[in-house]
Specification:
Strand content: 25-35%
Distance between the termini: 26 Å
Strand order of the largest sheet: 1-2-3-4-5-6-8-7
Structural class: alpha+beta
Shape: globular
Radius of gyration: 16 Å
Largest sheet: 8 strands, mixed
Helix content: 25-40%
Order of helices and strands: EEHHHEEEHEHEE
Length: about 180
Amino acid sequence: MLIELRAPAVPPARELALRPWCADDLDALVAAYRDPVLRRWTRVPVSNAAEGRRWLDRARRDRDDGRRYSFAVLEDDPDGPRLVANVVLKYPTPHGPTADVGYWTAAWARGRGVAPRAVVALSGWAFDRFPGLTRLDLLHQVDNVASCRVADKSGYAFQEVLPARPPFPLDGHRHSLHAA
C-alpha cells in the first residue's frame, strides 16, 4: 500500500512529504539517532546500521500487519529530500475508537514547526483512513516540555496526568484530538 501525505508549506517553512520508511532511509535514520536528545525520548536504540535495519524492518512489518503506520517526514533540500522527522499512528483497528500518535524530530529540524505540521497531516489521514476512529492520543513524559508544545500546536488538548509505568520512569501527559 503506497501512502504519501503532504503538509503544505507555511512560509518560510517548506512543504513536508510523509511516506512509509524504506531501506534507502537507513543512513538518515542512523544519523538522526546520533542525537542524545532523540535517544532520551525513544525506546528502541538505533546506534548503527544493523540496529537501523532492524528498526526499518519492524516499521515495515508493523505497517503490513496494521499495528503501526510509521512515516518518514521529508523536506525538500537543494541536494534532494532530507529526513526531518518520524510520525507514527499506533494501534489503530478498523472500527476501533482510539489510537495513539507518536513522533520525533531530527536535531537539525527542531524549532521550525516540523513536528506539529507532520502530526496534523498524520491525524487527518488517520481519521480518514479508519472510519470508526473518534479520538487520537499523544502521550509523553511530564518533563518533555517540547512534546507539550507540539501537542498544543497540533490541536491536541491536555486531558490528564498518567502515572509512571515501565519503561517510563516519570508520570506522563495524555493529550487528545477528537474527530470533527
